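Example for tutorial group B:
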C-alpha cells in the first residue's frame, strides 16, 4: 500500500505534519496565528528564565549581605525548663571545651566566641535601640567578613579593656557620631529583688562599618568580647563557619550530634527563615504569572490547529480514504503543533539564557540609552542587577512549556481524527 511505502522511509504522521508546517498557506490569518503562537511561547519562556534568574541573583545578594556579619550557625546554651538552672548559663570552661569539640567536627572551617546584649545607644540628644555584640577580633575574622566592612578605623582597634566600639553606618548617621565621639549604652537589667537596675557604660567610637544591609548597619555595634560579656549576663555563644552556606543545615546536624546536652546549634536558615520564605513565595507567584504567558501562547496553538483542521478537511478525507487510521491523523496534527511549540520553547531558552547571562551588560546600556536608573543608589544598597542562571530551573521551565504546548495539540488532533471522509468530500 502507498501509505506503507511512505512509512518505510518516514513516519507518515511526522512526514505530513512537517509538510503542513513548511507549506505556505493562502490563509493569512492562520499563518499570523502560527507566528503569534511561536513568538508568544518564545517570549514567555525567555521572560520566565530572565525574571527568575534575576530573583535568584537578588536572593544570593541578600544571603551574602546577611552572612557578611552573621556566621553560618550559632552554638548557644540550650533552653532549660529547670527553674534551678544557673541563670548565667554554662561556665567559661564549658564554652572553651565546646569550642574545641566544634572545631574538631569535619567541615567546620572556623569558630569564634561572641556575647550579645540589647541596649539603648545614647548620644545627646538622640537615642537608638541597637544590638551590642562583643567579639574577639582575632577569631572573628575566621567566621565573618566584618573586617572588610569597616570603612573607618580598624577592627583590630577593639582591644580588651579599652572601652571602644565600632558602629554601623546608619547608627552613626542617626546619632551624629564620628570617630572619637563617646556614646553611652544603657542595658536593661533586673536586680536580685526584682527591681529594675539598668547598667550604663560609655564607649568611644573607633570605627564605622557598612555591610550594605539595613538589618546590620542600623542595628549593630561591636565592642570587645570581655566588655560585653560583663553586660550580657550569660547571653553568649559560638559562631561557626562552614564551607558552603547552602549546606549549613547538614553541617549543623553533624555538630549537633557531638554537642553536650546543655548546648544547641541554630543555623542561618532558621535565623533568617522569614526573608527567604518571602523570596520563595515571590518567585513561585512570579513563575506562575509568567507561565500564564506561555499558556496563552499555547491556546493560540489550539486556535491555529483548529483552523488548519478546518482548512485541511479534504486532505484528511483523502488520507483516510487511502487507509490512514484515526491515530495517524492525530499524529499529523500533533506533530505540527509540537514542532511549532517546541521551536518556540527552544528559541525562548536560547534568548532567555543569553539575556540572563548578560543582564549586567544589557541593563547599563538600557539605562544610558533611555536615561533612567533601575536601582537608585540613594534608595538601594546595590546599583547593579544581579543574575544567577540555575540550569535545573531552566530545564524545569523548558519542560513545563513543552508539556503545555503538547497538551494544546490534543483537542485539535482529536477533532481532525473524527472527520468523516464521505461528508468531507461530498461538496468537493
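The residue assignment follows.
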Amino acid at each position: 500500500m502507498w501509505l506503507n511505502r511512505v512509512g518505510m522511509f518516514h513516519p507518515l504522521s511526522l512526514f505530513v505534519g512537517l509538510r503542513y508546517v513548511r507549506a505556505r498557506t493562502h490563509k493569512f490569518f492562520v499563518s499570523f496565528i502560527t507566528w503569534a503562537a511561536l513568538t508568544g511561547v518564545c517570549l514567555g519562556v525567555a521572560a520566565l528564565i530572565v525574571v527568575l534568574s534575576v530573583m535568584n541573583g537578588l536572593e544570593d545578594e541578600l544571603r551574602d549581605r546577611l552572612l557578611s556579619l552573621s556566621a553560618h550557625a550559632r552554638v548557644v546554651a540550650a533552653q532549660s525548663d529547670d527553674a534551678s538552672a544557673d541563670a548565667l548559663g554554662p561556665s567559661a570552661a564549658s564554652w572553651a571545651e565546646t569550642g574545641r569539640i566544634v572545631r574538631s567536627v569535619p567541615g567546620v572551617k572556623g569558630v569564634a566566641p561572641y556575647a550579645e546584649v540589647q541596649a539603648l545607644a545614647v548620644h545627646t540628644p538622640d537615642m537608638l535601640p541597637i544590638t551590642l555584640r562583643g567579639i574577639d577580633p582575632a577569631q572573628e575574622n575566621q567566621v565573618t567578613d566584618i573586617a572588610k566592612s569597616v570603612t573607618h578605623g580598624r577592627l583590630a582597634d577593639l582591644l580588651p579593656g579599652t572601652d571602644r566600639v565600632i558602629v554601623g553606618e546608619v547608627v552613626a548617621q542617626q546619632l551624629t557620631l564620628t570617630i572619637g565621639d563617646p556614646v553611652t549604652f544603657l542595658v536593661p537589667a533586673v536586680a536580685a529583688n526584682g527591681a529594675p537596675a539598668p547598667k550604663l557604660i560609655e564607649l568611644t567610637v573607633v570605627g564605622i562599618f557598612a555591610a550594605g544591609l539595613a538589618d546590620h548597619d542600623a542595628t549593630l555595634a561591636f565592642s570587645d568580647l570581655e566588655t560585653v560579656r560583663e553586660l550580657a549576663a550569660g547571653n553568649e555563644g559560638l559562631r561557626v563557619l562552614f564551607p558552603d552556606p547552602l549546606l549549613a543545615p547538614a553541617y549543623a546536624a553533624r555538630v549537633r550530634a557531638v554537642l553536650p546536652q546543655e548546648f544547641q546549634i541554630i543555623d542561618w536558615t532558621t535565623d533568617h527563615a522569614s526573608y527567604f520564605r518571602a523570596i520563595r513565595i515571590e518567585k513561585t507567584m512570579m513563575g506562575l504569572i509568567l507561565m500564564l504567558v506561555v499558556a496563552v501562547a499555547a491556546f493560540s496553538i489550539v486556535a491555529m490547529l483548529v483552523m488548519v483542521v478546518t482548512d485541511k478537511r479534504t486532505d484528511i478525507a483523502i488520507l483516510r480514504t487511502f487507509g490512514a487510521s484515526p491515530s495517524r491523523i492525530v499524529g499529523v496534527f500533533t506533530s505540527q503543533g509540537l514542532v511549532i511549540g517546541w521551536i518556540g520553547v527552544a528559541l525562548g531558552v536560547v534568548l532567555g539564557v543569553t539575556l540572563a547571562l548578560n543582564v549586567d551588560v544589557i541593563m547599563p546600556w538600557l539605562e544610558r540609552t533611555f536615561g533612567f536608573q533601575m536601582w537608585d543608589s540613594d534608595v538601594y544598597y546595590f546599583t547593579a542587577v544581579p543574575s544567577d542562571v540555575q540550569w535545573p530551573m531552566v530545564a524545569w521551565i523548558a519542560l513545563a512549556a513543552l508539556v503545555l504546548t503538547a497538551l494544546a495539540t490534543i483537542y485539535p488532533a482529536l477533532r481532525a481524527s473524527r472527520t468523516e471522509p464521505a461528508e468531507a468530500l461530498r461538496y468537493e
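The CA atoms of residues 115 and 235 lie 6 Å apart. Compare this with the pattern of hydrophobic and polar residues in the output above.
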